[in-house]
Design brief:
The protein contains nine helices and 14 strands. With 280 residues, the chain is of the alpha+beta class. It has one domain: Ribbon (Umud Fragment, subunit A). The strands form three sheets. Strands 1, 2, 3, 5, 11, 12, 13 and 14 form an eight-stranded antiparallel sheet that branches. The longest helix is centred in the first third of the chain and has 40 residues. It is globular and about 85 Å long. This is Signal peptidase I.
Length: 280
């Protein structure tokens, strides 16, 4: 009798153990499913390893990004926007942590292996933008304001930029994509083109996306002022960093496809001393 009771007790314990395992398995499965849904449609995080947005975002920062706002409205002038790089940034991949690499499994197929940038939106489709000397421009401080369709948007009045990239060389994008082409050998940016050959995989993006648009239609020089005028094509945005001297932005890599926009950063979660809502 004792052995029969022992067997029954043992059987009940085994049954309870299997039940517990199943319940934990369900809980883990639900967590993975709901976590994936939230990651795909609601929130995600990103690492900001560089100083392109100082003083708004101080590196190394990890941001909490919400993906809802820009699903029902377009980002406006001055909005801080997180977006996928439209090309592979080999150098920035080195800064990614294990968590970032794991989360890359959930990235849109088009942007697998890409990284996210965070910049400020300064140009919408159809806008013509240019850099003009700012009121506080001096030889010691050569800074510019960004004009959109001939005016400075109120959201950008306090922003100052450095006149580099496409605003200095109308063939900059071509040179970055084809650094060994004979026609760019005498560009003031020739050494920069050479330096970036191993840092980003830009040629495919330029040749397959930008070049077919007809860059000569969108990038022109004003014959009266000599200023470079950049018109933003339909389906694209123009993004620039707050820390203009340290920001690799649309002045250098071109227009950002609308489909590359991820969302809006809402919270700094690391480092702890900067924890809190992002000051925009």
């Amino acid at each position: 009798m004792a052995s029969v009771k022992s067997e029954k007790t043992s059987g009940k314990k085994g049954s309870r153990f299997l039940h517990e395992v199943k319940e934990w398995g369900k809980a883990i499965l639900y967590a993975v499913v709901f976590g994936t849904i939230i990651r795909l449609f609601v929130f995600e995080t990103m690492l900001v390893p560089t100083g392109s947005m100082i003083p708004t975002i101080n590196p190394p920062a990890r941001l909490f990004v919400e993906k809802i706002t820009y699903s029902y409205r377009e980002p406006d002038y001055g909005d801080i926007v997180v977006f996928w790089t439209p090309y592979v940034d080999i150098e920035s991949q080195k800064y990614l942590r294990g968590f970032d690499k794991f989360m890359d499994f959930f990235s849109p197929a088009e942007f697998k292996g890409h990284v996210k940038y965070v910049k400020r939106l300064v140009g919408k489709p159809g806008d013509t933008i240019e850099l003009r000397k700012a009121p506080d421009y001096t030889a010691a401080r050569p800074v510019y304001q960004l004009y959109v369709n001939g005016e400075v948007p109120p959201q950008l009045e306090d922003r100052r930029y450095v006149k580099e990239g496409i605003f200095n060389d109308t063939r900059f994008y071509f040179g970055l994509a084809h650094p060994d082409d004979a026609s760019v050998r005498f560009s003031p940016y020739y050494r920069l083109f050479q330096a970036y050959k191993g840092l980003i995989e830009y040629t495919e993006y330029y040749d397959s996306v930008l070049a077919p648009l007809g860059m000569e239609k969108y990038i022109k020089t004003d014959p009266e002022t000599g200023s470079v005028l950049v018109t933003v094509p339909d389906g694209f945005r123009f993004m620039m960093g707050d820390n203009s001297t340290e920001s690799f932005d649309s002045r250098y890599f071109g227009f950002v496809p609308e489909r590359a926009i991820v969302g809006s950063p809402m919270l700094t979660i690391w480092p702890l001393e900067d924890f809190g809502p992002l000051k925009k």
